[in-house]
Amino acid sequence: MKILSILICSLLISNVFADGRGEISFSYHRYTKKQTNQINDLMFSSFEVEDSGELWGGEFKLGIVGKANSKDRENSYLNVNDLYYSFTGPFLSRIDVGYKIYNWSKMEAFHPTDVINARLLDSDIENFDKKGEFSIVFDNEMEFGNLKIYAFPFYEESFFPSADSRISDGVKPSRVKRVTKDGISDSQTTWQYGISLEKQIGELDFLLFGLKHIDRNRPIVGYNSFTSVPLVGNIPTGELAAFYFDVLDLGLASTYFLEDHAFKMEVLNSSFDIEEGQVFLTGSGLRKVVDYTTVSIGHEYPYTWNNGWDSTFFTEYQTVLGVDSETAQELSLFQNDLFVGHRIALNDAFSKEFVIGFFYDLQRKNEWLINIGYDQRLNDFWKFHVGYRGFNHGEDDKLGVYLLEGDDEVSFKLSRFF
Q1: Residues 379 and 371 sit within 8 Å (Cβ to Cβ)
Q2: Which of 19, 105, 297, 306 has its CA at a distance of 20 to 30 angstroms from the CA of residue 189?
Q3: Cβ pair 146, 129 in contact under 8 A
């Protein structure tokens, strides 16, 4: 019934917004290894609708996504990605008010500077999908660059899948809590602020930003109250919760073009504004929140073959600085990782495309992640995708992709565009 409702809703929206566009998709995922008390295959439908136009002297943009999961109904949702109005303000500035998706990253695989939006934590662990964030943005185009000032009156919670899902691995927080230097609260009403400057100088383009906000991308799922029992260990008290932290993020994302080569870099320095010495109990032990810096560098190179095929080669590296090796492994899945990827487009009538991406951890022994995908159009309206995701980790390693042990999967997706 939920699947049918999603389809009806998407068709109604497409008729109301006659100038809009979107897609309806049917997806099936099958895990290659069965797990007890967890879902071993997924079947769901989803839709995405976009529209834009002029209204009352300004412009509006609409973007809605929905998903209905027949095997895991708790993982169904309807979200607004974009729903904002844009108009001319004082001094010829541009003002946007409403829900927006932000894309500050320039990399293919690692995205440390993509920090604003809450996430849908039911998608690919290396790059979760985003939720729209209610924003007030003042956009000023000046001689020294494009200057934007951001205000967020409250924050969106990330979407956590059910405890039966493979990503959750039997754990779903019952509550979400915000952690500040004044303590822990349930309130979502809090002003967040940011500023960014974007500029292109010759072959170099860059984005600089500062953002004082509630971090939803790096929550700690666990307990803030627990009792230490000799010979037993730490015993949690209270409810399992997802803890979001006040943070000041300072970032740089840049690309330098040298002939056909693109050299990329992203840097994010995170300073958390919380009570010093606060400790949380998680499934992997006690965790403290510490300040640190994430750095990613990358190279992208396109090549056209004699038969008309187009290839793009990607190489990226990410590391965590400012903390010791053990802490870095607790902070990030990609704390010392190399990514190599290749996309090849055949440029034929069916838009056939092959993609492969390989993540390799240079620190954790035998840890890697691989994605392989093939896309093809069937006609002007239909497209299908088949893919494979595989994982590996060291036998004694309880961090990194250990969470995805046995979660290798094959997938199929059929999409209808309108």
Answers
A1: no
A2: 105
A3: no
Q: Are 416 and 6 in contact (CB under 8 A)?
A: no
Looking at mean pLDDT, say which of 47-61, 148-162, 337-351 comes out highest. Answer: 337-351
pLDDT of residue 169: 66
385 - beta bridge partners? 375, 413
In angstroms, the CA 156 to CA 102 distance is 14
- What is the C-alpha to C-alpha distance for residues 120 and 136, in angstroms, rounded to an integer? 22
- 170 CB-side CA count, 13 A: 6
pLDDT at 59: 92
Calculate mean pLDDT across residues 377-402. 83
Q: Which residue type does 395 have?
A: E
Query: CA 249, CA 357: separation in Å to the nearest integer?
Result: 28
For the stretch 324-351, what's the b/e string if a residue is b when 16 or more beta carbons lie within 10 angstroms of its beta carbon?
eeebbbbbbbbbbbbbebebbbbeeeee
Rounded to the nearest integer, the mean pLDDT of the chain is 87
> What residue type is assigned to position 214 of the chain?
I
Alpha-carbon distance 215 to 233, whole Å? 30
Q: How far apart are the first and last CA of the chain?
A: 23
Return phi, psi of residue 315, to 5°: -135, 125
Tell me the average pLDDT across 340-353: 96
Q: Which residues contact 268 (CB under 8 A, 6 or more apart)?
A: 112, 113, 115, 249, 250, 251, 293, 294
Residue 398 pLDDT class (50, 70, 90 cuts): low
Of 253, 356, 373, 276, nearest to 312 by C-alpha is: 356
Q: What are phi and psi of 143, to 5 degrees?
A: -65, -35
The tokens for 246 are: 């006040």
Looking at the chain, the number of H-run helices and the number of E-run strands are: 2, 26
Q: How far is CA 296 from CA 250, 267, 312, 355, 366, in A?
A: 14, 6, 19, 21, 21
pLDDT confidence bin for 132, thresholds 50/70/90: very high
Q: Which amino acid is at 278?
A: Q
